[in-house]
Every structure is written in C-alpha cells, then in structure tokens.
Amino acid sequence: MPEMSGRSSTKLEPEQAWTVLTESPLKGLAFAYEAGRILAWDEGSQLYLLNAQGETLCMSRAPQQIVAGAVSAEGSLIALVGEGGDGSLVLLNADFEIEVERPAPFEATFLAIDPHGRFVAVGSRGGAVSFLNRYGGPAGRLETIQPVAHLAFVPDRPFLVGAAAFGMLAGVELNDARGPGRLDPEIAWQDRLLSNVGRLAVSGDGSMVLASCFTHGIQRFDLRGRNEGSYHLGGTVSHAVPDFPGRTIAAATLEGEIAIMNSAGNVRWRDRLARPPIALEIDPLGRYVIYGHSTGEIVRLDLFGAGPGSGKGRTGSAAGDGGRRAGGGTTAPRTATGSVRRPDWTTRAVSSEEQAETAVMAITEDPPCVAMFTSPHRLELFSATGEKLGRGPEVTGVGRILRTAPGWLAAATDRSIALMDLRRSTQRRVDVSLVELTHLVIRPDSFGLATVQERDRVGRLTPSGRWIWKQELRSPVEDLAIGPEGFAALTTNEGELLIFDPAGESSVGARFDPADPPLLIEAPDASQSGVVWISLCRRSQTLSGHELRGRVVWTRNLAWEGWSLSRSGPFAFAAAADGRVQAFDRTGTVAAEGAASGTANEAFTIDERNVPLRIIRKGVHLICMTLDGRVRWRAVGEETLGPFTAGTAGVAALFGQSLAWFATGKEPAQR
Prior knowledge:
Elements: E1 15-21, E2 26-32, E3 37-42, E4 46-51, E5 56-61, E6 66-71, E7 78-82, E8 88-92, E9 98-103, E10 108-113, E11 119-124, E12 128-133, E13 138-143, E14 148-153, E15 159-164, E16 169-175, E17 184-191, E18 199-202, E19 209-212, E20 218-221, E21 227-231, E22 237-242, E23 248-253, E24 257-262, E25 267-272, E26 277-282, E27 288-293, E28 297-302, E29 334-335, E30 345-348, H1 353-358, E31 360-364, E32 369-374, E33 378-383, E34 388-391, E35 401-405, E36 408-412, E37 417-421, E38 426-429, E39 437-443, E40 448-453, E41 457-461, E42 467-472, E43 477-482, E44 488-492, E45 496-500, E46 506-511, E47 519-522, E48 533-537, E49 542-546, E50 552-557, E51 562-568, E52 571-576, E53 581-584, E54 590-594, E55 602-606, E56 612-618, E57 621-626, E58 631-636, E59 641-647, E60 650-655, E61 658-663
Parallel strand pairs: 1-29
Antiparallel strand pairs: 1-28, 2-3, 3-4, 4-5, 6-7, 7-8, 8-9, 10-11, 11-12, 12-13, 14-15, 15-16, 16-17, 18-19, 19-20, 20-21, 22-23, 23-24, 24-25, 26-27, 27-28, 30-61, 31-32, 32-33, 33-34, 35-36, 36-37, 37-38, 39-40, 40-41, 41-42, 43-44, 44-45, 45-46, 47-48, 48-49, 49-50, 51-52, 52-53, 53-54, ...
C-alpha cells in the first residue's frame, strides 16, 4: 500500500461546528454512532451525554473514579468500570439510570459493547476477557496468552477483533452454542505484531481493521487477519478510525496532528491542533469527526463545512486552539457546567523561568492582597484588583519565608525579617540579629513574633525587634504555633508538646512517641473554644485537640498517614501524601472529606459560605473543587503552571511569568 501523500486536497473544507468544555479534565469519550450520542467522563467522575449538536442531554456523577466506559451503537446501554481493587461494573440506560451494578473483574482495564447493546466485554490485566449480557449475567469467557488491551465488535456479524498492548492481534468468533444469552468465544486466528497498539477500530463489515501502532503508523488487516499494508502520517499515530463503509479514515498523532484520508491512503486534509487528542471518533457516513482533549474540550469538526444540525453560530473552537477554527472564523465555545473560567486579572510578575519556579506566594486578609517573594530577595505586593502596591524592604540571607496575619505580612530569610503593616501601608526591617531562622509565626497586634533559630532556640519578640523572652531547648523543634492570651506552643523531636506562657515559662503539655513528632497548628476559633491547639502524629495516624496548657481534650484516628496539617477559617485540614483529606472543626468532628487527588501539591481554603475547598494542579489545569470532588471552576494554562496559593479572598497562581488571580465567590467566565 502506498504511503500517504502530504498534500491536502481542496475538496474538504472542515469547520468546527461546536466545542463543549467538561467540568474537570477529560478522561475518556465513547460514541454511539447510530444514535448520534457522545458519552464522556472526566477526572472528577462526572458523566456527560451529548447529542450530535453538542447539547447536554444528561449529566451525573459516578461514585468512583472511572477507569473505562463504553456505549452501544444505538445508545441504549452504557457500561462503566470503577477504579481500585473494589471497583464496580455499572450498566446504565440512556438516562443514566442504573440497571445493574456488580463487582468488576479484578484489575479491569477496558470495556466494549456490541453495537446492539446485547453483550458487554470486560478485559483485565490478568489476561481474561469476561462477557456479560445486558442484565449483568455471565455470558462467556475468553483467555489469551497475552492480556487483551483493545477489543472491537464487528457490527454486522458475531465476530470481534482484539489486540494486546504489544505483540498480538486476534480474531474471535462468537458462537451461540450454549444457548440464548450465552457466548462461546473461539479464537479464529492470531497474528504477531512487532509494535505497540494504541487503538483498534473496524469498519461496519470488518473488512478494514485498523491498528494504530504509533511510530509504525496505521497497520491495516482484513477480517481473516491478513496484513494489507500500512498508512504513514509522518508522526506517532495514536488514533485511527474508519467510517462505517471504510471509505474515510480519521487519524490523530501524539504530535497533535489530525488528518482525514481515503481508503487508498491519500490525505484529503490535515491540520495541527494546539494539543494532541485523547479520543477520536467519526460519523458512520464520514460527515464529521468528534475529538476530545485532555484539557476538557470536546469538538465536532464538520468535514464538508457546516452540516445540518451542526449548531454553527452557537459554539465554536476549542479553548486550547486559541479560538481558531479549521476552515476560518471564530466563535466562543460553551461549557457543559460553566466551570471553566479566566483569571479576574493577570500581570507580569517575574522576569525569568528560574524566578517563577522558586517563587514563594501568600495571600493576606484585611486587606486582601497577594505577596510574591522571588530571588534575589525581591518582595512584591499586588492588590486583589491587580494593582501593584510596591516592593517590600530588602532582606539579606538565604531562603524565602512568607507569613501572614490579619493586616500584616512578614518576609524573612535565615538572617533577617521584614514586617509590613498593610492597613497603614508601612514597612520596616525588624531590628534583630538572627542566625539560621527555621520557624516564624506572626501576630503583631497581640503577641508579636515567635521565632526558632537553628531549630533549638525559641523566642518571642516585639514588632520593633525587642526580645520579650528567649529559651534554648534540648531537642530540635518540629512545629510552632501562637495561641490566645500571649501563649505559644511547639512540638519537639523528642515527642513533647511544650507550652510557653506570656513570660516564656515552659511546661510539657503532652508527650508523644519520639519516633513520630507531631505537626501542630492553632485550633480554629481557638479564642472561643476550650481547644486551643491541634496536633497530628503522622505515623500513628492520630489527630488530637489540646486545651491551652496542652492537655488532650479529644483524639481522632485517621485512616491514612498524614502529610500536612493546616487551617483556614473554622476548619483544620489533615491531608495525606496522595491527596486524601479531611476537614475537622474545633471539636474534632469531620465536616468534609475528599478522596485521593494523586498529588500532595494542593492548597486548602474556604468559600464565602465557609464550605471547604481544595486547589490542585494537574498538568496545565488549576482546579478548584469541594472536598467531595465537585469542581467549582478550573483554568487551563496556555503557559507552564507554576506555584499557587489560596486564601479566603481567592487563589493566586503563576502562569508562565504572569501572576493570575481568581477571586472567591465569582461565577466562572466561559472560555
């Protein structure tokens, strides 16, 4: 078979008919080609069912992270597999109503449904493919030497084609020898492949079997397993799918190219997208293609210009394409949930990538502003409206520390501290000699500053730099907090909770395992409660509330090892390294909890109604969600997403060298 030509034909004039943006980053997509329905699911476990005009027909949230999904060609049956060892297999109807729910095969990896919605095939890493009928009953089993990674039912006959991730392609006959509702799968042929397979697709009669083999191009087989040649796009092909008759083929590469060609391999049209598609489907008559990006855009591309029912004029190109539409023209995409938003403002904040990577950021309250501390010892302040408020005083030394209190901001290195009174717009260097500052907590209006030097010398000083008391400890400090009435507390590497009264007299308030020194914060609403301190022993998975003198008032056991302990508003947030989190009030009651997000790089805050929120970074996405996974908004960065921070007033993040601000309580602006 000849290699494809790089010349584009003028016969096709593709136009983007519409773009829909999902709530969270898109994870997968399936196409009911007879019904003209698009099933999609995102990383927030949100399910979407769209029609061919891009209108949302149904939305629902799955109880588990979705590993794989499929829909029958006529749209009556939807199948989903949940993540984890206890993942479930769920069969839904076209209205997202659950018909069947049962345990999924162990380590299930993919799903396939026959075009008429009679049987579901579930593959696993163990190598077996389980067949079920549409009522969830067992219907057969297929075992292969290599685990099947891709499976495609042939629409017009009881036959399917499967492929391993590497090294095998097989044809399977589906016999009804064991009675109605049962299948007797039998391998009809096998062929060796010398490459990985990223996608497997078949035409309506099975005469064209396409295996997307990355650098080996698109390998074409017939229904008897004979290799009929290959198509080469000049890139790494991840998706290739034919229309029903096999006359038109849509293909996409990891380099972001999308191409339309005929069955002879002649390229009729090609274009480069802003980012590679993670899903690609084609209309059975070859009139349009549907593709999806990981950033959440689902796009319909009409191959012959605006077709009937395309929705042209109401929606347009993907946000990731910068509003560019194949064939010319621009319109605005719509969102399925209204969750994608632009920053309220952006401003150039750093002058190099190194500064962006090493920046330390904080958000202050009363008044709200954003502080950015970058090398070399450069502190800049921005108001919540994006106005540059000026620079802080010069500080010398190593490291960058930012600490906030209502109306105040402190920037420090290991040798000096600069203190800013934001209400009065004054700033000064704290006139005190420091050696290797390791911990700093500020409350200038009542307590002053609490410091730890060289990890074992704790002290309290006034904002003007006068020491009120200092004390040298016999063990290094783990964590430090300021409480009401001039009291301070710290935890040591010997497992002690030390309480310091206003004059600096210390006492042991509680003892813990020295091998598991706890984290420590001031309890939410400490001045209004008998609980003043909260500690977290990570290995023993114990969260404790302490009264002013350190006595344990309550203890809560976590189901996982804690990674961090922080507070915002009326809540204390205990988080694990994989992102699992619980929000506690001052009584130790769990107010909200969240599943693993896959990252420890996240921030916690509250909204204007005191609902706990988490902010996470995933690739090019900055996502704000409730702890139960409901996305409030997300932003897609056109440049590298750098450090970010969150406060009650909003979220600040670096996109490339620009500072972006997202105010709390504002509705997302559609992209």
